[in-house]
Each structure stands twice: as C-alpha cells, then as structure tokens.
Here is the input.
Amino acid sequence: MSSDRSAQLRAIIRTQTEIAASDLDPATIMQLIAERAQELTRASAGLIELLEDDEMVYSVTTGEATPFLGMRLKAAASLSGLCIREERVLRSDDTSDDPRVDGEACKRVSAGSMICVPLAHQGETVGVLKVYAPEAEHFDDGDVETLELLTDLIAAHLSHANLFEAEARESRRDALTGLPNRRAFEERLPVEMARAARSGPVSLCLLDLDGFKGVNDRLGHPAGDEVLRQVGQILEGSRMADDCFRIGGDEFAILMPGTSEEEAAVAATRIVDEIRGGALGAGGIGASFGIGTSVDRDGEALTAAADQQLLAAKDTLYSRSNSWDQST
Here is the structure.
C-alpha cells in the first residue's frame, strides 16, 4: 500500500474516532466530513448537497465552496442530481467537456474536475458528498474510494439521527424569509475580505426597511412577517440572490464581490426601487441603504462604513419627513 493511501486511511480512522468520542450534532458531523473530504483528496472545495424538490442545495460547504453556501442547482441538469438518480459514484475529469455537468455553475465556482458520491439516509439517496478542484484530471480512483469510506462514516454515525431534518439543514438560513442568516453572513464576510485582498474590491450594502414599524402597529405582526417574506422574495429574485442575507429584524445585507462603490449603489438603488414599487404593507414600505467598499481584510471597517452611510440615509429621511409634517 502506498504511503499516501496509508495516510488517507489513518485520517479516516482518526475522523471516525473523533466523531465517536464526541457529542457532535448532525450538522457539525456533516461539516467535519466535508472538511476531511476536501483535505484527503487535495481538493479546493468540499461540500454536501441535499436534494430539495427538484434542486440540489449547497447545504454544507468548505474551502473555495464556502461563499456559495445555499446555492441551488437544477437536479436534472447537474452531475450531483444524476448521482442521486443513478445512485452511484460519478466523476468528471474535465467539466469543460462533460455534458452531464451544469457548465455555468462549474465556471462560477471554479470546478474543473469533481467527484460526487451518493449519500443515503434511511434507505433513500437524499444528497451527495462532493469535492472539486479548479484543474482537470485532479482526482483518481483512490480519491473515489476515500469519499466512499467517508460517506459510510456519515451513515454509520448518524443512522439514528434525523440527519436531514430542517433545523440541521437550515442552521444558517432564516426561517421566515428563506435567506441566509446573520451566522451565514458572519462566516461569509471574512472569506470575501480575503478574496478582495487578492483579486479586487468587495462592496457591502446594508439595507433597512422604512415604515416597517408602522405596518406592525397598524396591521399587526403577521402583516409585518409577510412584508419580510416579500422582501426576501425580491432579494432572491435579484441577480445577487446568493449574496443576500437577513441579519436581523428588518435589516438585510448584500455582499457584492468584485463590485465598486458606484456599481454597488446602482444595484442597491434598483432593489430599493423594487421594494418601494411593490406596494408592500399596503403601500407603506420603503428602504434605505448604505454602501461600504474595501480591498483589504478588515470586515469590521467595511461593515462600519456601510452602517455609517445607512444611518446618514435614515437621518436624511427623518429630516425630510419632519419637514413635510411641519409644512402641512
């Protein structure tokens, strides 16, 4: 047996011992398995995709896949969906010349080659463990065997747990709007800051609803919840759908990698206009935003800059409102 293969097997045994000796919850175990999959195959990314209706959802992500947590692919047009349908391991050595893959998604996440291994739960194939790398021909048969052993670990240690229950799957997703939540935002921000330091600016838009308290007061909290759901739908329908977060109350964040402050303001204005034109909350809802832009690793400074602009926009709105009230 080669030294590399021996090291892989020792790492798998170490992972098994680590899981068995601890009180890890299902979501943490999935995260650990994805990290080991990436490490042991020398991949740039490891992830677990779960099947939801007719889509594959990036439910656990590591490495270069981290920014794409929550991304959705059509199961019928992706290698992971085919993996589930055929219930067998599938490998693509060159995604640029493979009709089985979602070519646009592969370009977006920089997946030049990949392996998908089916995950079974209670006798049903419900997801895949996947690794990918930017270059073609990255993986070999030993990598396939390694991933199969890791999926066996998931089945063995979680066979008595509801691995795919909503709370495990949605620990980084806001239940009301369906958007990624503050935890997901806080995990994603440092990734984008590190990327900005290497390859260009990242802009952050903090968006706060105007008139939201009035909707709750006049129409009740169920109406307010419906407003938040509708705003979530507007953000989900935007071209930045994978970069939008509900970070609390009526506050939202939009990360815009590779976007200047001017470009970010144009995109944010478009979303605000859609919110204002949507007659949400019986026509009483608008939105204010602030933009921060950075090319370094300081996420706190980026957030503070966006927050400062947002507060200034709110102050301007308040001043205008008072002036209107006094004139009438």
Observations:
- The mean pLDDT is 84.
- The beta strands are 45-52, 55-63, 72-74, 90-92, 113-121, 124-133, 202-210, 244-248, 251-257, 286-294.
- The first strand starts at residue 45 and ends at 52.
- The chain has two domains: 3-169, 182-327.
